[in-house]
Amino acid sequence: MLRGVAEYWGRLPTAAKRYIVLQALSTPILFVWLLIPYLMLVAGLDVGEAGAVLTIASAIAAGVNAVVGMALDRAEPVAFISLIFIVEGVAYLVYMYGFLAGVLLLIVAAAVVERLARGFYPVFAVYEYDVYPEEIREKAFALHNLVPYLAQLASYPLIGYVLAVALSSTKAQILSLGVFAASSTALGVLAALWLPRIGARRLELSQPLLPRTVPRAFLRMAMAVIVFGIGFELCQPLIVANLFIEIARNPLLGLALYETFAAIPVVLVSPAILSMGRERGASMVALGMGLVAVADLLLGFSQRVETALLAALVASAGYAAMDPFFMDVLFASIPEEHRGALLGFLATARRLVGMAMPVVAGLVAEANPRLPFILAAAAVAISMALTLSIAKQRYTKAREPRRKP
Q1: CA torsion sign, 213 to 218 to 223 to 229?
Q2: In angstroms, rounded to a whole number, what is the distance separating the alpha carbons of residues 271 and 146?
Q3: At a CB cut-off of 8 Å and minimum separation 6, what does 353 contact?
Q4: Given this model, what pLDDT does residue 276 score?
Q5: What are the tens digits of pLDDT across the range 340-384?
Q6: Residue 65, Cβ density class (10 Å: 0-12 exposed, 13-18 middle, ≥19 buried)
Q7: Can you give the residue ranges of every domain in the chain?
Q8: Residue 330 and residue 376: Cα distance in Å, rounded?
Q9: What is the C-alpha to C-alpha distance for residues 325 and 318, in angstroms, rounded to an integer?
């Protein structure tokens, strides 16, 4: 397995290698995605109110994706990537002051700034589209998962111990947002200075996009992504944090362990993906998405932390199995000359559909903290059916025996 990792890492271009390393460096900062919802609930907001705050923020920031999607074919992605980290750093600072002062308006403002940064997230997919070689794209995504999850496996137990045990006061946890803010800003500067630019050829590839020219395969995959996104939003960190507050003695430590357990299968499964041929792509999509649905059901019926940690293992194994092939199928359905517009459209559609999900998930969780996970399992099953209808076509040729000349 290690030989396969070394082999395919060596085949990646420099831009891909640096991008994956940058993602690994950003992984410890993403602990804040657990910390902020947890602090919202600890600060006195119930899960429905916290969901409403996030929905309001998403609604205010919703227009950004549409603008970004139109610009991605004409702009240098590295500038957007750098901007994301810097703007998120600002958001974490505003969160810190909002929680310290106990001012809800500041917390809403921070959420708006954070959602504005997420409006630029389509640029990640555009950069990946360009720098991950098509002939080994699923291998590139396996490495894309492996390296950051190694960073998560190494860092999350330490961060969780520091914040939940060593510095267990709420004020110390709030002040730690300043450290995350500084780290995110520094990473934005690093991205600007270190990531190779790829924007020179984008102007040559941009062509008018007409409705009749949108591939049907992309429309079906877009629906699969959107429905899968609904399932993801139903299980967002706010809902997971709400569940752990009910079932764990130390909820923040439990959340840290949950994400640590989630990293283990990715680290173990991703190297195995490197030795698989594309002919197994559809099977891996079915297996992986099936495991994600099972994990959602485990969370839906969990009464103990141990069950939730088992769900983390199952979901992560499923994600590691399906994601490289899922992304390969998605990217294969997108014509190169329209990649920015179509990825921007997809992000906009998912944002519009998911904009209301925090408050919806919050209200559902108020009625029953486990019900969102059960509904998420149903969404994943629907997404799996849509994806397989395209994946089977994508990988059928890979299974066909070669004819002798």
Answers
A1: negative
A2: 7
A3: 226, 229, 230
A4: 79
A5: 667 767 777 777 776 778 889 999 999 999 999 999 999 999 999
A6: buried
A7: 2-199+209-396
A8: 21
A9: 12
Helix%, strand%, coil% for the chain, nearest 5: 85, 0, 15
For the domain bounded by 2-199+209-396, which CATH number is listed? 1.20.1250.20
Which of 36-45, 97-106, 354-363 has the weakest average pLDDT?
354-363
Can you tell me the mean pLDDT for 236-244? 93
Q: Where are the alpha helices (DSSP H) in 132-199?
A: 137-161, 170-194
Going by the DSSP 8-state scheme, the letter that residue 134 receives in this structure is: G
DSSP letters spanning 9-33: HHHS-HHHHHHHHHHHHHTGGGGHH
The per-residue DSSP string of 278-334 comes to GGGHHHHHHHHHHHHHHHHHHHHT--SHHHHHHHHHHHHHHHHHHHHHHHHHHHHTS
Classify burial at 56, counting beta carbons within 10 Å of its beta carbon; exposed 0-12, middle 13-18, buried 19 or more.
middle
pLDDT at 169 (0 to 100): 92
The residues, ordered by sequence, that sit 6+ positions from 210 with a Cβ below 8 Å of its Cβ are none
Q: What is the pLDDT of residue 1?
A: 59
pTM, 2 dp: 0.84
206 CB burial (10 A radius; 0-12, 13-18, 19+): middle
Cα(104)–Cα(171) distance, integer angstroms: 16
* 276-304 confidence digits (pLDDT tens): 777 788 888 899 999 999 999 999 999 99
Query: Is 372 buried (19+), middle (13-18) or exposed (0-12) by CB count in 10 A?
Result: buried
The residue among 72, 15, 76, 81 whose CA lies nearest residue 200 is: 76
Residue listed under structure tokens 């179509």:
342
Q: What is the amino acid identity at position 317?
A: A
pLDDT of residue 14: 92
Using alpha carbons, select from 279, 344, 330, 321 the residue that is nearest to residue 132: 330
Whether 297 and 115 have beta carbons less than 8 Å apart is answered as: no
pLDDT at 404: 45
Neighbour tally for 249: CB within 10 Å: 8
Residue pair 338/219 in contact (Cβ under 8 Å)? The answer is: no
Count of all residues that appear for the chain in the document: 405
Q: What is the rounded CA–CA span in Å between residue 292 and residue 312?
A: 9
Report the candidate in 255, 267, 266, 268 with the shortest Cα–Cα distance to residue 299: 255
Of the candidates 148, 131, 116, 151, the one whose C-alpha atom is nearest the C-alpha of residue 78 is 131
